[in-house]
Amino acid sequence: MTTLNSLILIFCLQAVLVMISIPSSHCRTFKPRNENLIESTCKKTPNYNVCIQSLKSNPGSSSADVRGLALIMVNVMKAKANDALNKTHELQRVATGHKQKEALSSCASKYNAILVADIPSATEALLKGDPKFAEDGANDAANEATYCENDCRGINLSLTKWNNAMHDVAAVTAAIVRNLL
Where is the Pectinesterase inhibitor domain (predicted)? Predict the structure, then answer.
């Protein structure tokens, strides 16, 4: 019995030595299942780069399913909406003309609606398994950003960067949610 144990031990040690001595360049590289899921999901969105960047920057995406990816994107929407609302408030403090103040007030109202209505309803819909309402919330957020951008045209306001970021993230979110329908 000890001879058999010795042979097994020697065999195991040799196997370990062989595995250690194989250069990593000979090992086949592969993408984890979730990286493939992220890439295939992002290919179905209107902005692949925004999708990849948003999802891969979140550590939770590595173990998420499509619903989880959609929830991550809703959180990205929330961050973008907060950024845009903060920029709007910053511009309101220095606005000089009536048209600027009016446009900024309108934009603040739109971003507030995204934060108080669209984001919570999208989150709740995804958590409850009713993705249609999540898609509607994301589409509403994209539209609000576009409306804000239209309000600011021709009156020298610099919200385009924030409006475009919000629109793009919301459109990507809606496309990801659509995969759940």
Answer: 33-176
